[in-house]
């Protein structure tokens, strides 16, 4: 298949820029299909290959109040969710492809009682998880790790 495309490019009346672009795409395809798995991981670390990500938000308010959460990105509105204590909701998405960095960002507002807070629930350059499970406390959101144990907490925005 690759040989046919190369022959087509060399014999057709395509502009030099088109031929260069096709050659680069072919080179990318060849490299990504022939390099070893560890090299592919290195490639994706450098070029930030898109990844499927799940974000889960769990109400852990010590006051046992209902937590209203509204998450969105520049392109997607996840909608408003009302969570009683210890309940959660989740959403899934695929990160952007980016050379050096990905620009995927999801932000949420959180409301309970008279409190109103904001937090960037997913920032591609900060969060390297594919399953990002956040517990929301009054003091701020905490990222889980190792099956429910609290990892690290961040301040409200």
TrEMBL record:
Pfam families: Self-incomp_S1
UniProt-annotated location(s): Secreted
Top-level division of the source organism's lineage: Eukaryota
Coiled-coil annotated spans: none
GO CC list: extracellular region
Keyword set, alphabetical order: Secreted, Self-incompatibility, Signal
Ranges annotated as spanning the membrane: none
Broad class of the protein's primary localization: secreted
GO biological process: rejection of self pollen
Family statement: Belongs to the plant self-incompatibility (S1) protein family.
Official protein name in the record: S-protein homolog
Organism: Rosa chinensis
């Amino acid at each position: 298949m690759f040989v046919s495309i190369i022959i087509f490019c060399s014999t057709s009346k395509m502009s030099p820029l088109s031929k260069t672009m096709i050659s680069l795409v072919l080179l990318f395809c060849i490299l990504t299909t022939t390099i070893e798995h560890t090299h592919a991981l290195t490639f994706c670390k450098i070029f930030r290959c898109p990844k499927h990500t799940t974000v889960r938000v769990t109400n852990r308010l010590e006051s046992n109040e209902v937590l209203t959460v509204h998450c969105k990105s520049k392109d997607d509105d996840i909608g408003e969710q009302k969570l009683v204590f210890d309940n959660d909701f989740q959403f899934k998405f695929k990160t952007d492809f980016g050379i050096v960095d990905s620009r995927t960002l999801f932000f949420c507002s959180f409301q309970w009682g008279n409190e109103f807070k904001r937090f960037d629930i997913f920032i591609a350059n900060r969060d390297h998880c594919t399953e990002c499970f956040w517990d929301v406390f009054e003091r701020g959101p905490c990222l889980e790790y190792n099956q429910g144990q609290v990892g690290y907490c961040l301040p409200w925005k």
